[in-house]
Amino acid sequence: MPAASGRLRWLLRAAGYTLGALWTLPNSVIGLLGGLAAMPRGARPRWSQRDLAVVFIGYPWGPGGAITFGNVILATGQDLDVACTTYAHRAGWCRQPMMRLGDHERAHVLQYMVLGLAFGPLYLLCGGISAANRFERAADRYALTGRGWWPWARD
């Protein structure tokens, strides 16, 4: 019986990921267009099962790090297995350990998969790219603990 319940959990999770990917497809198209535009400048796509996204590594534009659009991550580095600081740490609000960039971006992928087209407007209404933004705080929390990627979960 336990094996059957494990298969059912796997099927439900796979169905959820598939529906989420379809729900956020318009956002992913934006990311794919950005990644394709960067390929002549050296960006290279690869699928990351761990991060549930097509990752364009070597993205040539931006201040560094990564940005997510649906199930697409545009990363300026050569992979997502790099350590970075949390937004709160960078803002001087507290001291926190380093986290894996890909774990932070995977939280945004999950947020997009639930919110679909509402992600962008809600993200901007919550403050855009800043330590005060609940989406960024949730992504940092998830990257540090493996839990809590939902922006309205308790901090």
Compact overview of the structure:
The chain has helices at 2-23, 25-38, 87-90, 101-115, 119-125, 134-145; strands at 44-48, 53-57, 66-69, 72-75, 83-84, 99-100.
Give a structural overview.
By secondary structure, the chain is an alpha+beta fold. Helices cover 48% and strands 14% of the residues. It has helices at residues 2-23, 25-38, 87-90, 101-115, 119-125, 134-145; strands at 44-48, 53-57, 66-69, 72-75, 83-84, 99-100. The strands form two sheets. The protein has a four-stranded mixed beta sheet with strand order 1-2-4-3, with helices on both faces. It has a two-stranded antiparallel ribbon with strand order 5-6. Helix 1 (2-23) packs across helix 4 (101-115) and helix 4 (101-115) packs across helix 6 (134-145). The longest helix has 22 residues, at 2-23. The model has no long low-confidence stretch (mean pLDDT 95).
